[in-house]
Amino acid sequence: xxxxxxxxxxxxxxxxxxxxxxxxxxxxxxxxxxxxxxxxxxxxxxxxxxxxxxxxxxxxxxxxxxxxxxxxxxxxxxxxxxxxxxxxxxxxxxxxxxxxxxxxxxxxxxxxxxxxxxxxxxxxxxxxxxxxxxxxxxxxxxxxxxxxxxxxxxxxxxxxxxxxxxxxxxxxxxxxxxxxxxxxxxxxxxxxxxxxxxxxxxxxxxxxxxxxxxxxxxxx
Amino acid sequence: xxxxxxxxxxxxxxxxxxxxxxxxxxxxxxxxxxxxxxxxxxxxxxxxxxxxxxxxxxxxxxxxxxxxxxxxxxxxxxxxxxxxxxxxxxxxxxxxxxxxxxxxxxxxxxxxxxxxxxxxxxxxxxxxx
Lengths: 220, 129
Ligand code: HEM
Prior knowledge:
The complex is a heterodimer.
Chain A: H1 2-10, H2 12-39, H3 43-46, H4 49-60, H5 66-70, H6 72-91, H7 93-103, H8 112-135, H9 137-140, H10 145-166, H11 171-188, H12 196-214
Helix pairs in contact in A: 1-11, 2-11, 4-12, 6-8, 8-10, 10-11
Chain B: H1 2-26, E1 32-33, E2 46-47, H2 50-56, E3 69-70, E4 73-74, H3 100-115, H4 122-125
Antiparallel strand pairs in B: 1-2, 3-4
Bound molecules: protoporphyrin IX containing FE (HEM).
Residues 10, 14, 88-89, 92, 94-95, 112, 115-116, 119, 157-158, 161-162, 164-165, 178-179, 182-183, 185-186 of chain A line the site of protoporphyrin IX containing FE.
């Protein structure tokens, strides 16, 4: 029984997850492109790579923007969170070793103790975001149930992964939960607020062009 | 003084001999896979009671695991007993010869998956005690 479930979630299910993620992202890009063409086709005239990159540049470095200097705690947490969020799943030894087993491709991986710490950072950051939504009035006002669910979906693979790595208890069950939660996370990215991961360069580039090329102002 | 020294050396030598013998004897029963190519293990050692495992799994031929190759061709009636896997499988893959970690994982987990018996998750083999 265990073997059947495991073979499925590590085999076909991984393909399904990656396919939904890729096709879903393409679909979102195309429909966004169409919408932009219809609603605001002048964007295509004034879109400027220079101003787009200038704006992106200012937003991907910590404290390069006014808003970030105003909220130092949030800025530090958000940057740490995003770095660990992307680096851990891609450079985790367990994940790289599975790629190696399946397709005989591999790349350098993080030492396990380092990954362990980064995972804990992600979990603490999730708690911070959670607390912010509960305790800060101006944030709570803008929060819906789906925000909590998305936060839980992001935290789940990290909590279960940490648990599995340390083999606290019920190892096999937690491992299966971990794999499924990772796959769910991958699949919901294109269809939820998490799609900001895909659209960030475009929204920022759009704002950058609008402010730089049209209004001759800064947008950071 | 001289006599004393010889006595001390003899005692020390005997102790080493005793430890050596015990170590040699306990090596008879393999309880862990320990390939000497892994200088420092990053994961807990894999418990593997060699003879018990092979009895339980009903593996008849030693060369299912201790296989021998001539170029790319498997030599069915020969084996590599007494050799470590790392004598032929290295840190990096060499053409179609898998690297050492992959060789262990494919051989062990591969059979467990195929037979739907035996451990397949990282933590089932690399157990923290
Ligand atoms: C394709 C689906 C996935 C599979 C098959 C998978 C599988 C695994 C396995 C086998 C481990 C090793 C557990 C151990 O060391 O005993 C692991 C650890 C881990 N995975 Fe995944 N995973 C998947 C997706 C994800 C995703 C999407 C994330 C995060 C977004 C993630 C985060 C982690 C973490 C945080 C650990 C623990 C590392 C530590 O605590 O040091 N995994 N995963």
